[in-house]
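Renewal narrative, Specific Aim 1. Our central claim is that a sequence can be written position by position from structural information alone. The example that follows is taken directly from our test logs and has not been curated for this report. It begins with the C-alpha coordinates describing the chain, in the order in which they were read.
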Protein backbone atom coordinates (compact mmCIF):
# COMPACT_ATOMS: atom_id res chain seq x y z
CA UNK A 1 0.00 0.00 0.00
CA UNK A 2 1.44 3.30 -1.07
CA UNK A 3 1.68 6.52 0.84
CA UNK A 4 -1.30 8.07 -0.93
CA UNK A 5 -3.49 5.08 -0.08
CA UNK A 6 -2.49 5.29 3.57
CA UNK A 7 -3.30 9.01 3.65
CA UNK A 8 -6.64 8.27 1.96
CA UNK A 9 -7.50 5.62 4.57
CA UNK A 10 -6.55 8.01 7.38
CA UNK A 11 -8.86 10.72 6.06
CA UNK A 12 -11.65 8.19 5.56
CA UNK A 13 -11.28 6.98 9.15
CA UNK A 14 -11.18 10.57 10.39
CA UNK A 15 -14.39 11.29 8.46
CA UNK A 16 -16.05 8.25 9.99
CA UNK A 17 -14.93 9.29 13.47
CA UNK A 18 -16.39 12.78 13.06
CA UNK A 19 -19.67 11.31 11.78
CA UNK A 20 -19.88 8.94 14.76
CA UNK A 21 -19.13 11.77 17.19
CA UNK A 22 -21.80 13.90 15.51
CA UNK A 23 -24.41 11.14 15.71
CA UNK A 24 -23.63 10.53 19.38
CA UNK A 25 -23.91 14.22 20.22
CA UNK A 26 -27.22 14.43 18.34
CA UNK A 27 -28.51 11.40 20.24
CA UNK A 28 -27.58 12.96 23.56
CA UNK A 29 -29.13 16.26 22.37
CA UNK A 30 -27.45 18.31 25.06
CA UNK A 31 -25.44 21.47 25.27
CA UNK A 32 -22.55 19.87 23.37
CA UNK A 33 -24.78 19.32 20.35
CA UNK A 34 -25.97 22.92 20.27
CA UNK A 35 -22.46 24.32 20.62
CA UNK A 36 -20.52 22.03 18.30
CA UNK A 37 -22.83 20.42 15.73
CA UNK A 38 -22.12 22.98 13.01
CA UNK A 39 -18.37 22.77 13.60
CA UNK A 40 -18.45 18.96 13.45
CA UNK A 41 -20.35 19.13 10.15
CA UNK A 42 -17.77 21.50 8.66
CA UNK A 43 -14.90 19.28 9.77
CA UNK A 44 -16.65 16.24 8.25
CA UNK A 45 -17.16 18.01 4.94
CA UNK A 46 -13.50 19.09 4.93
CA UNK A 47 -12.26 15.55 5.63
CA UNK A 48 -14.55 14.15 2.93
CA UNK A 49 -13.35 16.71 0.41
CA UNK A 50 -9.72 15.91 1.11
CA UNK A 51 -10.40 12.16 0.88
CA UNK A 52 -12.16 12.57 -2.48
CA UNK A 53 -9.34 14.79 -3.75
CA UNK A 54 -6.73 12.20 -2.76
CA UNK A 55 -8.84 9.46 -4.37
CA UNK A 56 -8.95 11.43 -7.62
CA UNK A 57 -5.18 11.92 -7.50
CA UNK A 58 -4.66 8.17 -6.96
CA UNK A 59 -6.89 7.34 -9.93
CA UNK A 60 -5.17 9.94 -12.08
CA UNK A 61 -1.69 8.64 -11.16
CA UNK A 62 -2.77 5.04 -11.85
CA UNK A 63 -3.85 5.95 -15.39
CA UNK A 64 -0.57 7.71 -16.22
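The sequence written for that structure reads:
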Amino acid sequence: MGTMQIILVLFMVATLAVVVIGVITMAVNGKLNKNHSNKLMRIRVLFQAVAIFIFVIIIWLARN
